[in-house]
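Revision sheet: structure tokens.
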Amino acid sequence: MAINIKELIDNLGQTAEQLIEKKIIPANKFEYFFEGDEEFFCKPEPGLRLTFHNVLRRLHSVEFVLINVYDNNDSYNGDMPPPFLNSMDKTTVRTLMGEPESSGGPKKIPVIGLMGTL
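Predicted:
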């Protein structure tokens, strides 16, 4: 299933079921980071993540990984609608879209559980 990014952006706020019914996203591709999470997500293509509110089930975030420097996940290689480009920096994005509601880089978190070999 080819994902149309413009159509996704135009349908922010729609429920997962509405997006499936309109054939904008595939069914059965939903995951939670952990049990009891307030959000669930769908990764319809490498480097593309759609985040939904758990209770309302509405799409509230369309995220792209354009250059992956943190792990072995793939980067997004599909087409981007204007004014977006596959090689935009933070300054360009903020000039076009304004300042984000929140922003932050990678964070180190403490290890929980066992490490190493037993």
